[in-house]
Amino acid sequence: xxxVTQTPKHLITATGQRVTLRCSPRSGDLSVYWYQQSLDQxxxxxxxxxxxxxxxxxxxxxxxxxxxxxxxxxxxxxSSLELGDSALYFCAxxxxxxxxxxxxxxxxxxxxxx
Amino acid sequence: xxxxxxxxxxxxxxxxxxxxxxxxxxxSMFDYFLWYxxxxxxxPTFLISISSIKDKNEDGRFTVFLNKSAKHLSLHIVPSQxxxxxxxFCAASxxxxxxxxxxxxxxxxxxx
Lengths: 114, 112
Known about the structure:
The complex is a heterodimer.
Chain A: E1 5-7, E2 10-13, E3 19-24, E4 31-37, E5 43-50, E6 53-57, E7 64-68, E8 74-78, E9 87-94, E10 104-105, E11 109-113
Parallel strand pairs in A: 2-11
Antiparallel strand pairs in A: 1-3, 3-8, 4-5, 4-9, 5-6, 7-8, 9-10, 9-11
Chain B: E1 4-5, E2 10-14, E3 19-25, E4 32-38, E5 45-51, E6 56-59, E7 62-67, E8 72-77, E9 86-93, E10 101-102, E11 106-111
């Protein structure tokens, strides 16, 4: 157990729908990162929150949004889902603002859009 | 445009021998490099890292080498063990709040 909790583990939904993925960081970690791993792809950085504020954006689609709450858990909202959004979505947390020191990943949410 | 490349999708090595995983990058602004290991159905776990001011970092059986002029790094595992069978991701950071940039991974298979 890495200490980073992601729910749900698996999600199957239809095209056009909206889903919310949840992440609870390790105790004391202020940074939460979201990544997407599609088939045969590396991990693609989506967005980074630090202590409730958005700090960096990567290749995140406009249909996707995220937020970090006062208790530091984070949610990734995916809307108007398309078949191509099927992927593993990972959350990672860190005590630091900078990414240099690496971070701890959760076990991911596997999203299947049908 | 892939800024971090792992050109070998898979690598098979005999148990007890050395495993060498390679990674190339194109962005000169990267100044910190990390390796992650991933087992099926789990998230990636941090393995070892190296700052651009160094050319080698060692941690037990794992050593990472950095050649800045060639924009190349490698991970050496000696000796390789069956539990090392996993997907290995190379990642790079330019500092700041941006996320890490990952390669596509190399699937290492340790054969008995």
